[in-house]
Write a structure and sequence with these properties.
CATH superfamily of the largest domain: Gcn5-related N-acetyltransferase (GNAT)
Helix content: 25-40%
Radius of gyration: 20 Å
CATH architecture of the largest domain: 3-Layer(aba) Sandwich
Number of helices: 11
Distance between the termini: 37 Å
CATH topology of the largest domain: Aminopeptidase
Order of helices and strands: EHHEEEHEHEEHHEHHEEEHEHEEH
Length: 345
């Protein structure tokens, strides 16, 4: 067990390669994510077997309540989550170098919920936050996601090996809407340039305004573009119609998965189905890379009345619902922890 020395370029490269290539790798465990979160601190823990990294724990830190620090391992750790002794050892290693006013180390690995795993973490001293949290915003990351599985899971699903099979995996009306977008002249480009981000951001702001929600500033996305440009792990997809960008999406390629993370759209052009055309190209990207999963991101619940679910489900209606274990909290300061939880009540 060791703390990553960011001046050791060889070890940093090994850490990043593990996060990017392990089947359960996640962009939020890459040290680049720590650089993106400019106002957060960070510590990187890794475990080796026979000189090879086989588990990592990236913890980002921020003052979450006055005078006290939250340590958050977004979608981490990466490794054998069932080896709770290993996970606890990694947490202890992180706490050795973190400030004394850390009140919580929060994990939320992307692994399926099970009563067995939940009970095991509780027995090991963790507080688990999953099925008892009813609102999707009660967790930092949504716990229920819509996922398309290229390897063919779920009733009526078969492995997807080509674009024809991918298209027929969707609901019939979704296939028609993708074809309608093409017929109307919608085209989709992809790239990782500053110009791509600026075009994305215009539709992203439009969508946020239409939905009455807040949005991140453009500087956040420009930092993202600068950090990942040229890696092949990050792409901005833009749907064009008559000289206008009418829809967009940002995706990351880590491990066996494409993570569709951000999107935007101009509702004035809704009848041309730009978002469907963008999804089609993003899903083909995952297919071309031989991915196992395409993660559409979180939903409030797996019901048609949930707007997020309604759109995403049509692409993955054969696929089983992805319900993750949720947050595994290692509480260091109980009073601080209770103060922190009040904001979610």
């Amino acid at each position: 067990m060791a703390i990553l020395n960011l001046n050791d370029t060889e070890k940093v490269s090994a850490y990043q390669n593990f996060v990017r290539e392990d089947p359960r790798g996640q962009v939020t465990q890459d040290p680049l994510w720590g650089e993106l979160k400019a106002n957060w601190g960070h510590v990187y823990v890794y475990h080796e077997t026979s000189g090879q990294i086989d588990a990592v724990l990236t913890v980002l830190t921020v003052e979450a309540i006055p005078g006290k620090i939250l340590g958050y391992a977004g979608r981490g750790p990466i490794g054998d989550i069932s080896d709770i002794m290993l996970i606890k050892a990694m947490i202890r290693e992180a706490l050795e170098v973190l400030p004394d006013n850390v009140f919580l180390i929060r994990l939320d690995p992307e692994v399926a919920y099970s009563d067995e795993l939940n009970d095991a973490y509780q027995a090991a001293g963790f507080v688990t936050r999953n099925r008892d949290i009813e609102n999707m915003h009660g967790n930092i990351q949504p716990r229920k996601n819509v996922v398309l599985y290229y390897d063919g899971r779920g009733e009526g699903a078969t492995p997807i090996t080509n674009e024809t099979e991918l298209m027929t995996h969707f609901k019939r009306d979704y296939r028609n809407q993708i074809r309608r977008a093409t017929k109307d002249g919608v085209t989709v480009t992809s790239g990782d340039t500053q110009a791509d981000i600026q075009s994305f951001f215009e539709t992203y702001v439009m969508m946020a305004a239409a939905q009455g929600i807040t949005h991140r500033p453009i500087d956040y996305f420009l930092r993202m573009q600068k950090l990942w440009q040229g890696t092949g792990l990050f792409k901005v997809f833009l749907g064009h119609f008559e000289g206008q960008v009418i829809a967009s999406g940002i995706g990351f390629s880590y491990g066996d998965e494409i993570w569709y993370m951000y999107a935007g759209s101009n509702r004035q052009y809704a009848k041309h189905y730009g978002p469907y055309a963008v999804q089609w190209e993003m899903l083909k990207w995952g297919l071309s890379l031989g991915k196992v999963e395409y993660d559409f991101g979180g939903v409030g619940d797996f019901v048609p009345t949930d707007g997020l679910y309604k759109f995403k489900h049509g692409f993955a209606y054969h696929d089983p619902h992805a319900e993750y274990i949720g947050e595994l909290d290692w509480v260091v300061d109980e009073a601080g922890y209770q103060d922190y939880l009040k904001q979610f009540n």
